[in-house]
Amino acid sequence: MSEKFTGSFTQQEPICQAGIDAAIRVMRHGRLHRYNTVADEISETAALEEEFAAFTGAKYCLAVASGGYALGCGLRAVGVGPGDTVLTNAFTLAPVPGAIAAIGAKPVFVEVTEALTIDLDDLAGKIARSGARALLLSHMRGHICDMDRLMAICTAAGLPVIEDCAHTMGASWRGTPSGRHGVVGCYSTQTYKHMNSGEGGLMVSDDPELMARAIILSGSYMLYARHRAAPPSEAFEKVKYVTPNVSGRMDNLRAAILRPQLADLPAQCARWNALYRTLERCLADTPGLRLVDRPQEEAYVASSFQFLLPDWPAERVAAFLSRSAARGVELKWFGGAEPVGFTSRHDSWRYAAAQDLPQTDRILCGLIDMRLPLTFSPDDVALIARIIRAEVSAAFQGGAEPVDRLPLAD
Questions:
Q1: Together in a domain, 314 and 187
Q2: Which H, E and C letters describe 86-137, residue by residue?
Q3: Is residue 10 part of a domain?
Q4: Domain total for the chain?
Q5: What is the four-CA torsion angle of 215, 220, 67, 380, rounded to 10 degrees?
Q6: Are residues 164 and 236 in the same domain?
Q7: Residue 306 and residue 39: Cα distance in Å, rounded?
């Protein structure tokens, strides 16, 4: 009898009791807006910003409504505007080029390597040719490139780097936290990220004028003095009358839910990585399947798992995916011709000009992606690996057909 997985790839752990208790306190007093405080009260949002700044080692932090808002706010804060060119990874998710297009700028995509990171040779060439105003660097699915080399390239070109750390909260490169190499780091607290408030985002920076501009952009009005992880008041003098309000504040309810999760984050990261290593070990040496190399300098947080089916024809990949799904294993394919759910590729984003990216296209054609929620146990992950291994082996040997042409396993 064929094994079948019956768990959910989208079920997260419940909010911890400390987060529930904090949320109830906020709901009982009713002051959900971050600036609605009494007497000497420190709002939950201001406290979260202080704590996250300390966690990352940043001077300043701003909590916002979503990770996508953080990206757009970061772009505006470094001075990107309509008509400017912004470089970004060709392998990413739609909110990244969407943030560029939403402010009227033009996304130009940089090729991806088989390590699923930005191609630094292609980056250097496109900086020289494109006249780019900034790099919006996506640490897509938690894979971090050689940040020392990337920053050397961008610093030499005078190109500001905005880091999209939606998948790397708690990760680092050579001991430097993700988000702390560029001029600003942007994080997400959407349900499927490393902390869960449904939606939410955080920004960190050491640049006082940039962060003052971001705080005004987020909708502080003239209440910026209530921020505790903010630059001094003089940093706001240059920007407060000329920076538009593009309101995207985080509220106290979400901040209350997040603060206990931040305290637990290192332990949660260790749990994700244990699941990842189990899956990696169980899939090692599977014929037809290539694991993604992780450099020693990268301390990752593996809340998802990727592998490559190099040079497989599309119909064979589709057959593998359908057979795996019939056995309860929900996988995503970045090589599909049409967007599905959250998964899309660069030629789906038609608000960006079509671009020739042969290396990226070849890699995405065989790129398979899977969530690793903390509701999985090590035994769950071992079962999932056995199913993947069996179906890859069957497909690689040429005997697999799409599941709708085969009887379901007993």
A1: no
A2: EEEECCCCCHHHHHHHHCCCEEEEECECCCCCECHHHHHHHHHHHCCCEEEE
A3: no
A4: 2
A5: 120
A6: yes
A7: 50
Rounded CA separation 324/74 (Å): 40
Question: Is the domain of 324 the same as that of 219?
Answer: no
In tens, the pLDDT along 148-184 reads 999 999 999 999 999 999 999 999 999 999 999 999 9
Q: How large is the angle between the packed helices 95-102 and 67-77, nearest 10 degrees?
A: 40
Task: Check whether residue 223 and residue 347 sit in a common domain.
Answer: no
CATH number at residue 338: 3.90.1150.10
CA dist 67 and 201 (Å) reads: 4
Q: Which amino acid is at 92?
A: T
410 domain residue, yes or no:
no
User: 164, 131 in Cβ contact below 8 A?
Assistant: no
Sheet containing 201-205: give its strands across.
60-64, 201-205, 184-188, 161-164, 134-138, 85-89, 106-110
What is the spatial distance between Cα 52 and Cα 35, in angstroms, rounded to a whole number?
19
* Interval 230-273: pLDDT, tens: 999 999 999 999 999 999 999 999 999 999 999 999 999 999 99
What is the 3-state composition of the chain as percent helix, strand, coil, each rounded to the nearest 5? 40, 15, 45
Integer Cα distance of 204 and 230 in angstroms: 10
Q: Which helix (H) or strand (E) holds 256?
A: helix 252-283
Beta bridge partners of 176: 173
Among the candidates 260, 287, 316, a domain finishes at 260
Give the structural domain span for 116: 17-260
- DSSP for 350-380 reads TTS-----HHHHHHHTTEEEEE--TT--HHH
Task: Estimate the crossing angle of helix 17-29 against helix 252-283, to 10 degrees.
Answer: 160
Tell me the C-alpha distance between 85 and 101, whole Å: 10
